[in-house]
Design brief:
The protein is of the alpha/beta class. Helices cover 33% and strands 25% of the residues. A hairpin with a 2-residue loop joins β4 and β5.
Length: 267
């Protein structure tokens, strides 16, 4: 009777298998999934704890609350005026301050402000960076003066005129072009002329007078006048006027309305 195959023969190694040849079986798929799920759960718990702590720190704690307001850039306005209108909620969580609402309120209630930047200054401050409008012309009425900026926006009324800013006299009631060029359009034209004057001449200008869109006259110091004409060709007129004044320094009247044929007269 033939003997059956030995254990070694069944294994195909030709050697008997002993206890030392046994290897631990790799972890099954179910165990791997359980391990991965545990790690993900721990990560999620950590993220939630971090998020909850951040929300509490920003909204519930006393660490990031408004304690001070700092204003910069004011010239005519005072920081106290700006901060009163801004009405920053001192003591509120810094993250809840409505920046856009403060900016809109300042521009609406303080028209002297051209632009304003409201920003959080962590951990306890709000900053207000103001840029004020600069007057380039003054409209006089009943002893007060309305300041007009370089974009032809009237923005403030004062009782004492700022130094170095010329008055604007609109005398266009009899102008045949008044229907087409109303007071607002004439104001734009006047500001355009003022902006194109050379610095030295602008400094000496006391009055800008308009009787129509194409009749602008400048009244300077020392009883000098300049007939500018319309606001067109401003840069060319500015260069011609500068040269004409140098060529005839004792003249009292200058005409650059036709810059290709300027003229001066008087002494």
């Amino acid at each position: 009777m033939a003997a059956g195959p030995t254990t070694a023969e069944k294994s195909g190694t030709g050697k008997p298998q002993g206890p030392s040849d046994r290897r631990p079986r790799p972890e099954g798929r179910g165990g791997l999934l359980r391990s991965t799920g545990l790690r993900l759960a721990l990560i999620a718990a950590g993220v939630l704890l971090l998020a909850g702590g951040t929300v509490w720190a920003l909204y519930g704690s006393t660490w990031f609350r408004v304690e001070r307001v700092k204003t910069s850039g004011t010239e005519v306005l005072t920081p106290a005026q700006v901060e009163a209108v801004a009405a920053v909620p001192v003591g509120a969580p810094l993250v809840t301050v409505d920046i856009e609402a403060i900016e809109a309120r300042l521009r609406e209630e303080l028209p002297r402000i051209d632009s304003v930047d409201v920003f959080r200054s962590w951990p306890h401050g709000i900053g207000l960076k103001v840029t004020e409008r600069k007057p380039v012309l003054l409209l006089e009425k009943r002893g007060s003066f309305t300041e007009v900026d370089a974009t032809a926006v009237p923005f403030a009324t004062v009782t004492a005129p700022p130094r170095g800013v010329p008055r604007l006299v609109l005398d266009a009631a009899a102008s045949p072009s008044l229907r087409r060029f109303d007071a607002d359009r004439l104001l734009v034209e006047a500001v355009r002329v003022r902006g194109e004057l050379p610095d030295a001449i602008a400094k000496d200008t006391r009055v800008v007078r308009l009787s129509s869109y194409d009749s602008v006259t400048l009244e300077l110091t020392r009883d000098r006048t300049v007939f500018w004409g319309s606001a067109e060709h401003g840069p060319v007129k500015a260069r011609v006027l500068t040269a004409l004044m140098k060529a005839t320094p004792k003249a009292g009247h200058f005409d650059v309305s036709a810059p290709s044929a300027p003229a001066s007269s008087g002494s």
